[in-house]
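Sample 1 of the test manifest.
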Amino acid sequence: MTSEELFYDRKPAFDRIDEKASNEYAEGYKKFLDEGKTERDAVKAILKMADKAGFKAYERGMELKAGDRIYKVNRNKAIALAVIGNKPIKDGIRLTAAHLDAPRIDIRTVPLYEQDGMAFFKTHYYGGIKKYQWLAIPLELRGVVCVCKDGKTQTVEINIGANENDPKFVITDLLPHLASKQMQQKMVDGIKAEGMNILIASKPSDDEKDCKDKIKLAVIKHLNEKYGMREIDFLSAELSCVPAFNACDVGFDRSMVGAYGHDDRVCSYPAATALMDLNETPDYTSVCLLVDKEEIGSEGVTGMQSKFFDALMEDLCGGLTGECYENSICLSTDVCNAYDPNYADVSEPRNDARLNCGFALMKYSGARGKSGTSDASAEVMATVRNIMECAGVPWQTAQLGRVDQGGGGTVAMYLANRNIDTIDAGVPVLSMHAPFEVISKIDLYSAYLGMGAFYKS
Ligand code: MN
Ligand code: MN
């Protein structure tokens, strides 16, 4: 055999992919990114697509037959979609699991205050962010406020900043002229979380001559007129600031997409669309699970550790899930780091995924001595590898940088703990968790093809 046959050589996939189809697919993805900047908005966008693709809301006790397309939404923040297969469900499912939440700046429960001629929102960052990246960029406000009035509650949606003519919000940064002390600090100390207050207004109200917080009054009056809110209603709100710029192409060759929230919508979107695009009934029931709260540990009622998934599977199995789970395979589809020559010293050039080299299969993630990972078995890695090979999907291996450099985890372990064979797979990302992350279009399309092949296998 020749060296070419014997060596593992990671190669860009431009010669193995339909670039026109890949570029077209990226256009749909960009629209999804702009619509779905929070998990609630992403669920809404997925629902719209599912509706068009013939999926129906599942209700407990519903009779299901092969080919049926169903979905179930978990509290507006997570969703499971399924196409019922030809084989009985106890033979196992083909499951993809991705997350819809992304790092962002959440608004606190008592956020509104006025100081020295300006009004601000207090914030609490969500997920692992480098704080300095979120200063001096345009932000939009998204979320819901559950207004309580006369013993009734009403949910009001807020979305300000997404449209071109909308006002934006911002966390101010210190001018370099006065930053000499700040610049000497360790990066982790340079920006304080309690200093990340969002500038929201500067004009005082004309009413109430004696009110000492006239700018705050003007803001709350505006919110009251527009949304029926009083200050106390922030307590029952979920409001977040996310970057107020839309997805766009990156590079002279437009080979990449830059956007907020690729992690993990760059896996959620192909997981969902590959399922919707199944044109034949698969052998195994195919399930796409899109969850919330991954960025803060997968806890909570809408996270991967919630029993929502098990409850749905019990319904589909007509009782116990044991046999179904042990026969199932899961692709935990989440982003991985793309090798970045600008930061080569923390990367492992042989093992890290590369931009444009395809859908990235990751045997394990974790930190230090593989802590916090499920570490897929050789057998299941081989099964998934074969599925990719047989379908001609460009794929590559991935790891999370140099050993002992840091680390991280995905939802994989929570699925593996349920006795489901699980491997990590995803799309390589540059500047992960930054307000503007970058991915390659052919990696995105490879993920779509890979997940389609997996559902069909
Ligand atoms: Mn992720
Ligand atoms: Mn993440």
